[in-house]
Each structure stands twice: as C-alpha cells, then as structure tokens.
Batch of 4 targets.
Target 1
Amino acid sequence: MKKVFTSFIVLFSVLMIYGQEDVIKNGGFELGEDGVETIAGLADWHMDKDAPGSGWWGDALDRHVTLTSDDSTTMYQVVDVISIDSVLYDLTFWAGDSWNTGKVVVVASTSDADTSIRTTLVTDTLEIGVDDMALSFGFSENSAYVGKNLIVEFTCTVLNVVDGGAWTNFDDIAMIKRLPGVNNPPSANAGPDQTVEGGDLVTLDGSGSSDPDDDPLTYNWISTFPGIVLSDVNAVDPTFTAPDVTELSFYSFALYVNDGEVNSDTVLTNVTVTPAGELIRNGDFSERVPGSDPASTSLKDVMHWNIDELRDSLSGGIWGPMVTLASFDPTLYQVVDVLENVDVTYSLTFSARSSWNSHSVNTIVSVSEADSSLRTEIASAENLMGIDPPGGINTSAYAVFKQTTAIPALAGLAGKKLIIEFDNVAYDDGNDDGWCEIEFVSLVKEVTSGVSSDRLNGLTIYPNPASTVLHLNSDRAVSRVNIYSILGSLKKSVAGNDITRVNVEELTPGLYIISLTTDQGVVNHKVQIK
C-alpha cells in the first residue's frame, strides 16, 4: 500500500489558499563539476564527509546520485529560509535500489548559520516500490522556526548486513513551497504512452490531472494530425480510431486543464500505431518465451526473436518495451516471412538510440533455408545514432529509422525464409564497448505486381499501383466507392448502380484506402496511386 508521510509542525487554524514555487536547486543533478563524480562536485548539494563513497553518474541530461549507507551521513541541501507566513512544503523524489537497499530515509531539518549542526523536524523511512517517495509538512504563521534554514536530507539503510552496505539511486528531487493568498495552478496529466494497431479504438486518459485547491477542472485536448478527430476535446477521456498506417507511426496529443482561473502547463502523451498487417511479431519486445523466468533480462527470453550466442555470454538484455544490444553481441534477428514468386516490397521501421557509444544500428535483410542460423545477406542499411565521442557525446535521443527492400519475382528466392537482423556497431575507439536500445519494430509487406494478388471474395482491383483509372472486377454490384487518405480523410466519392471503374488521376500520388459498398456489405482495400 502506498503512502505519503504528512506532518504539520504547527497545525493551521484557518483554511488558506496557497501559491507555489519549487525551492529545490539542481534537483536533477544537472549541475556537476567536470572531472568530478563525488557529491562535492555537485552544485547546491552537500555531505558532511571529506571523502564520501557516494557519487553522481551520467551526463547532465540523464544524471542520478548513488548514496551508500557506509557513509553514515546524509546528502543534504539548504532549500529555504523559513518565513513569517504560513507555509506548506511538498517534497517528492525518485529512488531506486542499486544494491542491498533496506529503506530510503528522508529528513526535514533546520539549522542556524552552521548547516553542519541540524535539528530534525520530521523524518520517514520509505520502501522502494511500496511507498510514494514523498514528505509533506508545514509551518504556521509566526512559528518558532522563523529565520532558520530549512534543509532536506537523504540516506538509506541496509537490507541484509551480511551482504555489506547498501547503495541507493536518487533522482528528480522537487520541493514545492505553498504560500497563502494566491490560487495554485492545476497540474495536467495526459496519461501513459500507448502502442496500438491501426484501426483500434484508442482512449486517452486525463484522469490523473489534479488541482491542489480541489477546484473542478475543465479539459482541453489538442490533436495536430490531419484525419485524427477526437470524440470530445473537452472530455477527460476522449477516443479516436487509430489510422490504418502502412508503417510504424507516432502521434502526440497535448492536454492542458483549467481550474476556473488559470491554465496548467501543457503536457503530451504519445500513441505509437503499428500497421494492422505487419509481419513482425512481438515488435515491442513485451512477450517472453513461455516458462522463462519473469525476472530474467536475457535476450534468449524474448519471444520470436533469436540471437546466435550462449545465454551467459550476452551483454544485451530485455528492459520493458525495448531491448539493449551490445556491440560485441551477435545480431538479433527474426524470421518474418517465406518468399513467394511475386514482386514484393518490405518496409521496415523501428526506433533506436545510443545508450552508450553506439555509432550505428545496422539493419540487415537476409534469407535462409531451413536452418536460420545460416543466413545470406541481400540488403542492409547503416542507421547512424549521431553521437560524437570526441566531443563528449556518447548517448542520443530516440530516433525513427526506415528501410525499404524490394525483392523482384525473378530474384530466384521463392521458398526461402526472409529474416530481419539488427547489428549494433560501436564507435571505433578500439574498445568495442557500444550499447544501443531498440524498440517498436514494424515490418509491412506490399505485393507490387501490376494486378493485386488479393482476391477479396470475388473482387479484384487493378492496376495497383494505378495512375489514371482503377478497374473493379466483381461478382457483386458496387453502389458506392469512397477513397480515403491513409489518415482517414475522404478524397473522392462516387455513387452508382454498378460501378466498374473510377478515375483517380486527380489524386496525389501515395497510399489510399478504397471503400466499396456492395449489396453484401462494405469491403476496404489499400491502393497506391502513382
């Protein structure tokens, strides 16, 4: 059961409205002295020890502190001077177990000028994964602490003394100070990111939004993508139908809320849409091999994907909706199709980043006979991560990469297995120590012969691709033809008793959805205009 420890140093005698400000400085540990990794190298944070075993890690964009219980002292910061006014403080932070953590200890204390001499006001011990990492307290007007330094402190306890000391990670520390007389702005929460298939009904979720004054909220959703229309932009949970995309696609939706006086900041939620007809299985790496250890992070335990190396020798792993692939691991691959004697195009899309020193993630299209460990490359692409190790940049943000591979019928590959492979290439510094992260892999197959190979219950659409006219050969009467963009916008509509051809020369080249209304229902099909 989660909890938030709340203590009022002096209870308030009247109900008041509070304005707020963040009083924690360098709460994400972004400010650190170059070449130093001890607490002493961090701006605004302190430790009463000359040589602490604790330290900070990562670059300024992704940095955290690791505290060790062996230091027998706290990491602390002077956050404010206690005022004469009534005031509330809400402290929140992130904490994670690095090794043998028993409890996280958080303390609020005061001091005079010498901050090494502190008086504890409130403290709590919190369990990672069970309790909210938070502490709340307040002072009344003209309290006995007016003029003193207010200090927050962090440390950890040991879970098992036999295993030695504990190491605990801390990050994203924030402390909100609330003062009387000003309305608090609300906080918007657009809900978690989602991954859906094209055609799915998607529900956005703003129910996590809140107002510190408990004022009623109004919701304002914004969609910037043509063809995506939300059911109600002022609902807490609007819906929309995911577009029938032909490649992995990403959509963002913005939300701000209003408490009757002021708007919140605008926040985003992201929806990843995978093609309904994609060939990749377990494209978000969420499925595990049946019977595998749920706690295992081995690449051998991710469903449908393979790697030609012993389990214990792999350095990459499974982490939530993505995998980490080390440069000295062999390629990660999946058998995706069996080739036929037709002209076909495969469109691969995926998202990746350098988590450390990854120069590129190379994608390889290969074929094999029955033994997929014996593969022959037929196409490849180098997908650069954009790092600059000499300039101190070894990591990168996620980016989307695409590769299209056309295989003609005359290639002589019919009957062979088609395989997609990922290979991580480290920056060439002689160490081969690169790691990349890969997530949301999608592969779509499109038969590109002149006549569609899909016979839809007696219906044939040709030519496909088309440039001027689409012909409809059907054993049922077609009474209406609607042509939509891939994002769902109606581009052309034709009605009649028995439609057998549609002029499309005014349409912009690209992929479309053609919807045919017959006496036995509606049939939808993808067509390409060239």
Target 2
Amino acid sequence: MATIVDESAIPKSAATAVPRRGSPRIALTAALAASVAIVAVFADTAWSIVSIWIRSETFTHGFVVIPIALWLGWRKREELAAARAAPWFPGAALVALCGALWAILTIGGVLVGSQFALAFMVIAAFVSIVGLRAARVLAFPLAFLLFAVPAGEVLVPTLIDWTADFTVAALRLSGVPVYREANHFIIPSGAWSVVEACSGLRYLIASLMTGVLFAALVYRSASRRIAFVAASIIVPVFANWLRAYMIVMLGHLSGNTIAVGVDHFIYGWVFFGVVLLLLFWVGSLWSEHAPAASDFVRAPDLRAPAPASRFTAAAVLAIVLAAVWRPVPAMFGADVVANGSALQPVGAARGWTPSAVPPLAWRPDYKGMTAELNQGFTSASGPAGLYVAQYRGQARGREMITTANALVSPSDRVWRAERRGAVEVSWNGTPVTAQRTTVLGNGTRITVYSLYWIDGVVTSSGAMAKLGVMLSRLRGRGDDSMLVVAYAADSADRDAARELLEAYAPELDNMFRRVAPRAR
C-alpha cells in the first residue's frame, strides 16, 4: 500500500536531513548578477533613487533596505536548500513588461513611477531566473525591496492640512483662542506654521517599514499581520497630530522659551520614538511563537538540478529584455534639450492695458522652466497679473508637474494658499476647468486662477497634465507645456483675475502654438 506524505507538514529538521539536490546557489548567483547588470543599465534611474536617499532625511532609510532584504533572504537559506531552483522562462515576459512600463513613465516624466518600474524589473528578473518555487520562499525579501523607492511626497500637502486641522481644533478645545489662515495660525503667545517638516511623512514611512518587518517576523497569521501594518500606518498619523499640538502648547505655556528651537525637533523625535516603542510592545503581546505552517518546508525536490547553462541563459535573457527599453525614451523626445522660445509680452485686449510692472509681489513657486513671463495689466476691474511659464525638454529638475512646484510652497513663511477649488472658465470660447485658489500674505488676499496647456489641451489637473506630456511625446510632438496663472487682489464686486484670463485666452493660445509649433 502506498504511503501518503503531507509535504507541507515536514519540519525543517527532517527536510534538511535529506541530501540537498538541486541547490539554488547557482540560481541565486545568476539572479544577483542579472540584478546588478539591470541596475547598471538603468544607472540614471538608480542614481535618482540614491540621490534622494542622500539629500532627503525622509528617505535615508533607503540605505538599509537592501542589507535588510539580503538578511531576510539569508534567513530562508534552509527552505531554499530544499527548493529546486529552475528558470521560469515565462517570467522573462514580466521583465519586458516592466521595461516597457519604465520607458512609458520615463517618457511621461513620472520619476517615482520609473523608479518603481526599475524595482519591479529587478524582482521580475529574479523570479524568472530562480523559478517560481524558490521565488515563493523569497517573496517577502523581494517585496521588501520596494521600500527602497523614495515615494510618498505627494501625501505632504494632505498630511499638513490634517495636522493643522487637528492642532487648531485641539487648541480651541483647550481654551486657547486661534486665528487661522491656511496652515498658519496665531495664538495669544505668538504665530505658528505647519510646514513640510511637520507633516509627519518621515514618521509615517519609518513606522510603516518597521511595522511591515515586525509583522513578518513576529506573526504567522495573515489577519494579525494586516492588523499590525494598519496600526503602523494609523498610529504615527495620530501621534504626529498630538506631537504638533503638544509642541505648540509647550511653547504657549512656557512663554515661547521651550519647544521653539532645536528642542522643537528633539521633542518631536523623542515623542515619536516612545510611541513607536509602545506600538511594538503592544504588538509583541500577540506574537505567535508556536509552530505554524510557515515553520515547515516542503519535502526536498529530488529531481536532478537544472544545469548551470539554463540559469545563465535565463539571466542573459532577462538582461536583454530589460536593456532593449533603455534607448526608447530618447526616441520620443524624453531627452530633448531644454531650449525654450522667448515668451513675448502681450498687448492691450478687451479693455485691459499692459502696465509697467506686475501688480503684486507674489509669484507662483515654480522652477525649472525654460522661459517665463510675468506681466501686469489694468482695466476698469482693477489691476491684475498674468504669469506664464514654458517647459520644454522636461527632465528631472525641469518638470512642470512635480512635488517641488506649487502656487505656494508649504514651507513659505510669507504666503499661504487656501480655498482650492475647480471652476469653469472660458478658454478661447471653450469651457474648461481652472483651479481657483486664494493666496494670503503681507496683509493681502489674492485670487488666483491656474491651468496647464499641453499640446493644445487645457486642464487644471496635474495628473492629466502629466498624462498629456506623455501622450504628446509618444505621438512625436515633443513636450512643450505651459503653466498659466491669472491673479489679482481679492475683490468683493469684481473677479479681475478671471476676467483677465478669459480676455487673453485667445492670444495666449495663439502664442503657445507659435512657440510649440507642433501643436495643431
């Protein structure tokens, strides 16, 4: 009678006692070599990741991600010894798909997207070389590599707003009168601002990465792992709100003698450290040390190991299918030299007369443009200004849509933005959506209308503008893009900024088509 063996319930001790045939050592060597080669081929994207680790305190954790992933893989060595490694050649299609995604996102100037595409490319190459069975063993170490990509800055404005909302509400509940303008507020003891460093993004990223690692090492059940990871996201957000409130209260109660200098940041990190330790301590109370399914490995595969030549072939195939996409962005104008055509001042139109200087000291906080125009106008509606920035040959540091560009920087201590909303305006006779923003500072309220022009298409959405740049390049029409901003001092009876934008829309549209002649 045949004996039925449950392969999933063989303890490690029993599995490792069987002769190790089909050792994955050659497969791992080939996969690591291919990974290094792919990173070298896409060195510019890889360097963009490392350079952010270097310059941004929020993402310095990136330096430890790869060592931790290697350590996590080393912990799986006994399970790997029992897993027969054999190339999974269909996985090479995933490498090609990731390469195509990298090319498309690079063409579109989506830096974080191209960085993720490179990370997925390396993971796909690894899986295709070592095979599905060995890849299952290394699933978590491979997935952990994604923490190396510096992502999350898009959350900063939202986190700042949430922190300011909570801090102001908590101060009022504490009996402290507050006057608020956007993310700046004044209390009897002084003025405070919630800036980028107060958003809590670095706390959130640090908590999430360590929380995922903790959950994988301490828990066995999926439900506990999911619950702890969720807690590692929610707890630092609430902790940052409390931190901001306590710092303001410490400053207020001490007459601004404490929590207003370097100690401001020291108190913040100490508080976050205590919260994180409490989170892990509470999480450890539900740790799962009893043997579970993941503490056992399958019976070793006694089939003959795949020959080294197959791993070499799989590694070469992965490198080739990745490298073939490297020159593609240049073919679609992603590497165009950023030479901009001069933007000429516009003349009188529809009752508006150009003035010698812009009406206000404010200007949009955009950088990297190839040309710009900031012109003042007067009419019966009052003074108003028109700002235009041209972008061509967009690349890192020269992009129109990026987290570094905004009407008002979150770190600006003079100007602040509030009341953002989409409104319909007339652009050259066609209704389009513009972004309406109120900018405050220097005792002035400014009404601002902003939109983007890409290859003849007008939109107020940054995401749609980014997509428009990508589609324009893919059609071979370049990436000429314009930021259009009309602004005027806030008035109760006339919307001068809107009137100016609609009056000059036809002339601006014609001017843009001249400086970007491929747009029709």
Target 3
Amino acid sequence: MFETYDVVVVGGGHAGCEAAVAASNLGARVLLITLNMQTIGQMSCNPAMGGVAKGQIVREIDALHGRSAIVTDHTAIQFRMLNRSKGPAMWSPRAQNDRMQFALFWRKSLEEIPLIDFWQDMVVGIVVKGDRVTGVRTRLGYEIPARAVILTTGTFMNGIIHIGEKQFGGGRMGESASKGITEQLIDLGFEAGRMKTGTPPRVDGRTLDYSQMEIQPGDEPPSKFSYLDTPVVQDQLPCHITYTNPEVHAILRKGFDRSPMFCGRIKGPGPRYCPSIEDKIERFAERDRHQLFIEPEGRNTVEVYVNGFSTSLPEDIQYEALKKIPGFERVKMFRPGYAIEYDYFPPYQLYHTLETRTIHHLYFAGQINGTTGYEEAACQGLVAGINAVLKLRDEEPFVLRRDEAYIGVLIDDLINKGTKEPYRMFTSRAEFRMLLRQDNADLRLTPYVEKLGMRNIERRIALLREKQKTIEQVERFVSEYSVAPEQVNRMLVEIGSTPLSQKIKLVTLLRRPKVDFRLLRQCIPQLDAFLSQLKEEYVQAAEIKMKYAGYIEREKLMAEKLQRLENVRIPPHIDYSRIHGLSAEAIEKLSAIRPQSIGQASRISGVSPSDVSVLLVYLGR
C-alpha cells in the first residue's frame, strides 16, 4: 500500500509542516502522518506569530524558503513591529492571525505540493535495523518504509491534561495522546523527561465590555513577514489590554489547594518566561495586578484568547476570577484553561543537524526537544527536513552558526546547554544581535537556498538581487553626497545635535544619534527625490546598515575570532577521561555531548575556560 518514502514526517504541527516543505523543496518524496487531518498547522495556544526574537526566526524561516511567514501574511488580522523605541537589533515583527484560516491555509499550501502525501493515523513506533531507522509502525497496523524519519510529536507523547483535580490523557484538548514511541526510544538507549505547558481559557467576545479596556491597534501602515509578494493585512482588528486585581488574585488563591501544579500532580517544569496566572501571583506576591492581552481568534468568530491568564486551576475558580477582571463582568467561557504534561528527549542526544546520535537517519524537531513556541518548532522542522535529505544524498550537512541566524543560536543552545525547562528564544540569548536583525534575514540566509538547489526559488532570488542592488545604490548616494550646513543646521539644533561648520558627507551625518532618513529627507530634497523611487523596506535596510556600521563591524570581528575555535576540530572518539587536567564535570559533559570543535566545547555548560585551554594543549594547539 505504501511506497518507500525518502522522508516520513510524524506530526502535522508547525515543526512537521516546515519539515515536509523543506524536504520537498529539495526534491524528496515525503509522507506526512498526523493524528487528525483537520488540525494540520493548528495554533494550539495563542493566535499569533512572531514577537521578540520569535519574529526574527519567522523571517529566517522565510529566507530559507519555508512557509510560516507566507501563511502568516495571508491570514493576518493585525501586524505590529515591537520594540521600535529601541535599536534595530531589537525590532521584532508580530502578527495576530485568524486561527481557523491559518490552519486551513497551511493545509492548502501543503496539498499544493505534489511531492507530499498524507496519512491520518497514530505512529506507535519506529522500525530500526541495526543502528538505522527504516520506517514507522502505525496504530492501524501498517509498517511504512522510509529512508529517514522526522519526529515532530509536539505535546502528544504520553500527554496528560490537567484541570484542577481532573486529569486525563490527551495531546491537546479534544485529541488523544500518542503512546508507544517514548517507551521504544528508551529501550533503544534514549533518555526521556517530562515537561509542562499550559493555555488560558477562551471566552465569548460578545460578553466583554471593551470600553473598560485599553485598545491596542496595529501599525499604520502595517508591514508583513515574508520577503516574497505576500499581501499586507487590511482592515486590522484591534487587541485590548486589561489587568487583574487583588480581588482576582484572592479568588485564584482559593483554588490553590486543588491546583495540580501546587499539589505535585504535575511533575514536569513549565515555561519560566510564560508562567501560569497562579504561578505569577505566587512568585510576584508584591504585585497587585498583572497585564492581560485580549486577542481575537479571527474575523469570523466571537472566540477570544485571554493572553496572560494561562491556568490549570479548577474551572469554577477560573470562571469566578475572570468575572472580576475589568470588562469581564458578564463573561461567558467557551472552554477552561488547562495544563498539559508530555514527554521530551533532552537535546544533547542530537547532532546540530537534529539527527539523533543513537539512531542514524532519525531526526527530532520541536517540543520533543524541549522547546516551546510555534516559531522555535517551525525552524527546527525546517533544519531537520533539509538535513534529512542532504544525508540521504551524502552531501555536507546544513548547520547555521550563532552569528548567522537565531536558528543557529537556538539549536546550538539546545545541543550544548540542554534545557531543564521549555526553551524559548529571546534576543538576549544571541551575542550577535546586530548581525541577526529582522530586516536582513534574506541577505544572510537566502544565498543558502540557491546553494542547496531548492525548487521554485526564482522569484525569491530575483527579489534578493533587487534588494542587494538597491542597498548598494543608497550606500553610493549617501557616501558621495555632501551636505551643506545651511541645509540641515536648523534640524540639528532642534534635535539637540551640534550644527555643521562646513560641508560633510551625508553618511557621516547619518551616523549621528537621533539623525535618520526621515529627518534628512525633510531637509534635503535631492535625497527625498532619490529615495522616493525605491522600495521603502530596502531603503530602511540600507539605512540600518550604514548608520550602525561600526557596531556591525565590531560583531563581525568578534564572530571571526570565535570562528577560529570552530575550526579546531576534536577527534570523534577521544577519551576525555585520559586527558590530565580536565575537571570532573568537564569530562562528564564532554563525554556525553561529544563536541565536534573547540568552539562547541567552549559553549557547553560546565566546561570552563581552563578546561578549554587543557583541550587546546592536548590537541597540540
């Protein structure tokens, strides 16, 4: 019944969808197996993509010919660029999405790819011969042959849902948990653990009084995620902001004795940076209110997502507390919030390609690796899909460095540092934030798409060339144009900057604090006439590149120094216990992770600079 597929992807969430697309982009025959064809690309938690650092990841996925940004742009109901008051390294795009349209567009997008087949079933195990995976087994009794397998199981492996004192099996509300894979992988020598995540109640927007809340509109004009010709959102829907209060907190505390988190029924750690509401009021007892974002679920539904109120308290407590929030006095609840516990596999058991060290041609991506978030999952799926095909072709693996992409930071952190709680990306995790901006992801990464020989990239490459050419034109103009004092001194005085005493090059003036193209165009008609002919997005990228050239060059030099350590390779079968001078912790960590270079070894938690020096001496460097 089934042919031998190049790649079988298990799971139809964000990681699975991107894995299937990436493998098919390289010409592989793919089978996507999911428990429910109706929930492909489902937004299980909040109806939004992007955010701080996450938005950069979505743009990186797009630059690598993934689909998340395209789906987001086609189904957006609001767009905002976060952190605009800070430097461009911190700017992070975020979109609210129509939840139902998002999943529908993802499925339609996948079904339009002839190389992807689908099968609705539960995978209960993998087929292994020797140390290589050769297929999967399903609950319906099929053994489906595959040359590579990517597990993107999300929260479904032995998932348990908690609401107060109630608990039952499930990978998501209304969907059954997946069983069998964890037990088999443990038998094969893998280490497994448990993690927890949660989601807030959904409520009826018709019963909310928005006049008591702060309105949060989208940007005007709005932007978008994809570098391709996707639509810009029209007729944006607003979100709203309201707050909890001491009365809400008092009601929630009444349910603490029935809380699965406080009573010990939940064993796995939850995401520290996205805590439940009961965790917030316990950890931050001195605060008398917490902010809530009220997010519409779509254009054609009254369902509303209460962002910031994630909880696993009993549903009667949830409902009673909600009614004391300003604007929620008449609220009706569609479904309660809940917590979910699930299995994951500590990611030090993987290579940077996301292939497992124990079983060849088996890849893990998404929450199975201990991450949280659609964006973090999607980028792992993309990397796993690319590397699965490259390994089948005996080609060089695709591994992004920390100075090349947030995706590289994420995977490097997972492999070298592991995670004892759900891992979420932040800009603070990246040491090269100025290089890894949201505006230049295509310049950084799209050349890889061409090098890898992906399909249907003609338009993407043409747009990249257009952007590169435009940036060069702007740089040339700004570097050659001389600005006279009488043109700009009035503006400089108004912003508190020193007036000019003689002509200087425009690029020198641009690098001053508070000076930007917006102000300069008002003073210099020639500049305004020139820039008006060009695409605004490209002009902004050129401005950032020139204005922050000093910071960018400094980070490049730092990255080059660190890259020298990456070039010092470590033999794969080295016996660390025989190296005199290494600490006991370093021996343990190095033996478990088996770093491939001194650079990687230096980033492993527990490996000190003195341990790195010992290694360098041992290797004769």
Target 4
Amino acid sequence: MPPGPDVATRSWASAAVRRFAAATNLLVAARRFRLVGGDARDRQALHALLTALGARAAADHEPVDQLWCLGDPEESTAAVEREADRPRGATLVVVDAGRHLPAVDEDAFGPVAPARPGVLAVPMLSDDVFLVSTGRDPEDDPAADARLRWARRSMPVSRAVAGELRDGGLLRGTRVGVAMVLEPKTAVLSLLLRDAGAEVVVYAHADETDDAVADALRRAGLPVFAESTATTARQKDLALAMLDTRPHILLDDGAHVIRLAHQERPDLLPTMLGAAEETTSGLRPLRVMAARGALGIPVVAVNDARTKTFFDNRYGTGQSTVFAVLDLVDGLTSGAHRVQPGGSAVVAGYGHVGEGVALVLRALGFTVTVAETDPVRALQALFAGYAVAPLVDAVREAEVVMSATGVTDTISLDVLRACAPDAVVAVAGGIEQEVALDAALAAGATLRTVGRKAERLTFPGAASGPVVLDRGGCINITAAEGNPVEIMDLSFAAQLGAVRMLLEHGDELERAVVPIDPAVDEATARAALAAFGAHAEPPDRVAEHPADREPDVRTSRFGDPA
C-alpha cells in the first residue's frame, strides 16, 4: 500500500474543504466531485477526505456538482468549460483549491459577480456556475439578500412542497409562527410559507438571530420579533409579542415557544391547529407534558421524520459543528490549545448527532473515542471502529471534546476537571448547561477570553484548563451559518409536510406528540433523490389477492402442504 499523505498535506486538505463549506454553506456528503490537476499527493489527500465525508468521485460520463481545481489554470479553464455544459438549474461549484498558487483564472470566463460572500457567479458561462477560492476566507459581509437567494436556489424540495401548498390553497387565512434559528434557510422557509398563502410571523432567540437576515425579512413585509442583543427579559417580551399575533400553527426549534404558550398564553391553545417540533431536546419535555395530560395542542414530531433525523442530525450537524469548532481553533494562537492534526477526540453520545460528529472527526484524521451511557449505542460505536470509554476517563488525554447528547450536565463538573489542559470543549447542537459551566463557576473556576468565542476555564490551584467554545452554545449556529443548505432543505420539507398534516387533520389529532405521516418522508426522499441526480427503485407492485380468500399460511419448505 502506498504511503498516505503527510500531516501537512492532510491539514491543507482539511482547511480547503472547511473553507469551501464556510464560503458556500453547502454539503459535502452525497455530492459528485471531480479533481483537476495538481500534485498526486494533494489529489490523494483531497480525494480521501471528500470520500470519507460521503462525497462520491464522478465517473467519466457523469456531470459533477463540485469541480475541485488544484493545478494549472489553463487545464482548469478547459475543465470548467466542459462541465459548464449542463441542464439549466444544475448547479456547478468550481473550487479553486490551489495549494500554493491560484488554480483557476477568474478572468478567463468574462465578468464575474458576487453571488454571496465568498462565491462568484459566472454569467458568461451559465447562470448555474459559481467560483469559490479556498485560498482566501469569505468576506465579512452580511449580504443577507444574496445569502437568501443562494439558499433558495439550493432548496428545491422545500420549494416543491411549498408550491403544492400554494396550489392547493390550504394556507390561505392561516397564520404561521416560525420560532427557529434566524439565518438564511429559515428566512427562505418563512418566505415560502408567505408565498404559499400564509401570514407569517417570526421569532428567534438573541444568540440565534442574524440581524441582517431579520432586516431582510422585515423589508419583505414579515413581522420579525428578534434582536441579537436582546436580554433574557427582552427575548421573553419578543416571544410573547409573536404569540400575541395568535398564530394557528407554530414551527419550533427546542419547543421553547410551545412551552411558553402553555405557561403564559393558555387562552391561545384552543384557537391553534397545532405545532411542529424539529429537535430531540425539544420533544423530550413535550412528551413529559403529554404524559401528564398538560399538552394542549397536537405537536408533530418532525425530528423523528427519517428524512430529518438520518440526514440533518448526522450529516448536517456532523459537518457543520466539527467544521465550526476547527475553524475557531484555527483562529487561536498555537499556545492557546493542544489540538494537533491527527490528534485525539472524544464524542459524548452516539445517537444520530454523535454518529455524524464522530464520522467527520475521523474523516479529518482524528482518533475518536466515544462515551455513551446506552450500552447498545456504545456497542454500535465499537462496531463502527471507535474506542469506547467512560467520559471522565476518555477526556484525560483528548485534544477535542464534543458533546452530542442534548442532555444537561453531560460535560459535568467532574469531566471538566478531568479534561487535559488546553483541550477544546464544544457542544454539537445542545441545550443550556450541557457543559456545566455554572457548576464550575460556583466551584471557584474562572473564565478568561483567549480568542473569538473561546474562553479558558481554570479551576483554583490549576495552572491551566480546557478551552470552552461559545460557553457551550450551539456552535454551528453561533459561530457559523448552521447546517448546510441541502440538509435544511430536507428538514424544512418535513416541516412543510407537518404543516399540511395540521391543516388537513389538526382537529382530529390527539393533544399529544404525534408522529409525522410516513408519506411525508417518502415524498421528501424521492424529491431529494431527484435533486441529487438519483432515483430510487420503484416500489414492488403487490400481487393482488382475491378479497374473498385468505392467503395460504402453510409452509412449503418441507414439500407441498398436505
């Protein structure tokens, strides 16, 4: 077997893929790619990383989604011109991944124009060809309208489902409250609902609000109750103001607004068709409320849709959280952390999110240990090739510690004390105090800022301690642009399916957490397969059986039944 890429080459490949993702907010998994030019070792490293993340090298006859250019600009120009000949609407992202010099001559294609920060459109070639350079970071420019347009073009499944709602006229006269992370994809969902006939009102928590996106929605005529600088008291006032518009349907993330409605606006509940919740941590308290008979509306468990959990939780959160963590680490001085290429990482929890986090960390070269309290999931991790150990033991030598449980105090006081000095601690997804910072501070620990969204936690008598990112917040939201667009397209298509359920059957549904209709999953998956350039095997036609005769249940394994 030929030797693998050296550490420096693997680090370059990691940085290139992360810069591509930061510039585009696009997915790596499931995309077809082709490499053009460059050194053989660089090509090997980039090919290995892309495939480990779930991308697929395209066959010679196949069109590609991503063209990674590594070498001579003239060779890249010819490849781009060949790949640009494609059906309208089939997006091609050309990635300049030149390691030492640019590999793409941007001037070779005529005038270019910004499509979003870090992405250039090439109108002389096609409306569907875009250029990205991994040699420079995206501009620090909110450019909300451009980011909304970019997100919308990459959300074909949600667009199709919203179009069906519009054509059916189901949403006319319905007020929908959207209480989610306020970034471009959520804004597109809100506008799709508006265009389908709904009255839409929007709320977001302060740390989940992109003010430029909020302003873009206000310019589009939507009432937006969100401010990135809002205090806790102000956030409550904003959430109550949104509820006071009396939405018929709530789309929530974390179930905070659903619960607030029960606590502060119970008179609203009889007028509501229901709600939809898209997170595991949000469904937990709602199920407790339902068991107590305290849930006053049906809540569709969007989180449990297969097209949400299997993709959003695993591929979306895995990519976006790990990339966000390493991007923040790259911004720290070398002495502020102990993270090294090919180092060690610990993942707490091996549900769908933990699976994705572990997968991405391993793809980037980390040796991963999983800590999981459920013995069956721990066994799954072992079978997937990870070491398994108790969390307090696993963190002692780890360089990166990521919680993927959505459970309070996962990274407990004892775990924080056990972390190696200068280890980096972060949360994938998460809820309040998933990292037990309040307990650590009560025990006398101090926090000192060491970089953007990075603070060193030091206990009394210790010379140093771990670096906690964003105080244990949802790292891909507060330090990046959330999950990739194509992933949220699936999740939001499921949300729109839940809206249809509530519109058509809300009066009939039990006041409980109700499963999403399996037909929503199937329709979403088939539409997504088409968008990704693939198709499922058609379902087998069930042989008709005479209605007046039961099927023969006798076995023929031992000869003809007597």
